[in-house]
Amino acid sequence: MTMHHWLKRFSFASMIGMFLILLMGALVTKTESGAGCGDDWPLCNGKFIPAYTIESMIEYSHRFVVGVVSLVLLATMILVFMYSNRKDAKWYITGAMFFTLLQAVLGALAVIMPQSSLVMALHFGFSLLSFAFTLLLALVYTRFGDSMQRGDGTTLTKGVRVAIWSTLVFTYVVVYLGAFVRHTEALGGCIGWPLCNGQVIPELTGATAIVFVHRLAAAILGISLLLLYLAVRMQASSDSSLYRATRLSFIFVVLQILSGGFVTLSIGYDVYLLASLLHTLIVSCLFGMLCYLSITSLQSTGRSKVQAYAAPRLP
Predict the structure, then answer these.
(1) Count of the separate structural domains present in the chain
(2) Which of 93, 240, 260, 315 is deepest in the core (most CB within 10 A)?
């Protein structure tokens, strides 16, 4: 087996591992299992193998997976720095390792000492960044790697490129607001969907204000991605990577908004946990796709070397 295949396998293992961490972190929050191991870290209630309770097993399983994935990331980093000639791959694995360690430290601090909801909301955001870096790393060793390094032959205006990166940043803000809603347990502040407590604009106090701001930001993001899709459609061919990535991003944001409504309407029902995990899954796909779109857009400046390469196609 060639070293390229080993790099590909380890990068994909890192990506899958980070995706699992995202879902397990959401599960910990939604089941309120964060205190399942008491205030001990890295042990759980003073034991290496804790006594069986649902909360302790969920929390400790999350810690265990973070530890295993961190080792996989370390092995991947060693392989990338020793055998890969792609500078961007080295940046991606470094970013993934940095944010993985950062979210692990933040998680440990949350166990040892109380943290505010503003700080705890960063935990999911850092995990999402780690996943995005591992996704980009995995794509480097696929047929999409060339478009990330050399472009797909499309020329975008500076305004569209700025809009793409601005949308990525705003998406992270929306994700943070969603994590803040979870950690403040404010979801019940808006009963019903799409209206909030039967009103277009409810009384903006307490939990209602927190949820409504998140909903409003999500709506703005949906409109922004629609406009971005139309703009890219005018400048890119229908078979270009940029066009297909923008189209998929718009599809994901629509699904994300609908899944948010599903979460709200499922409150009090057994399907609530499944709806919450689905919400997390879709936003991870959305953010990852926007990261790929943003990186690829950097190569769409119309320089001659960009035009010399054929565009790989997204499925």
Answers:
(1) 2
(2) 93
